Recover the amino acids of this structure.
């Protein structure tokens, strides 16, 4: 019984930490931030691809754009260096 309680406590501790961990892609460029293209250009690329852009932010060395397409939420990760799409996560 003690092992079960210890396992439950360990799992509860892990579950409390998990939401704080980022699930995003973070490595898009090694270029200095001063040389990055504007985030608005990443948003424009997402709009051109058919996404309704909700918001964007910097995640690591990537522009992370949140958009909706076909009723589904997506996270799009663009390189600020050349605005190439590096990774997409469907939510």
């Amino acid at each position: 019984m003690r092992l079960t309680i210890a396992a439950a406590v360990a799992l509860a501790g892990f579950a409390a930490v998990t939401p704080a961990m980022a699930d995003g892609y973070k490595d898009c460029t090694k270029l200095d931030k001063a040389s990055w293209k504007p985030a608005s250009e990443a948003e424009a690329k997402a709009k051109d691809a058919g996404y309704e852009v909700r918001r964007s932010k910097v995640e690591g060395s990537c522009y992370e754009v949140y958009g909706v397409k076909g009723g589904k939420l997506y996270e799009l990760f663009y390189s600020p260096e050349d605005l190439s799409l590096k990774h997409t996560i469907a939510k």
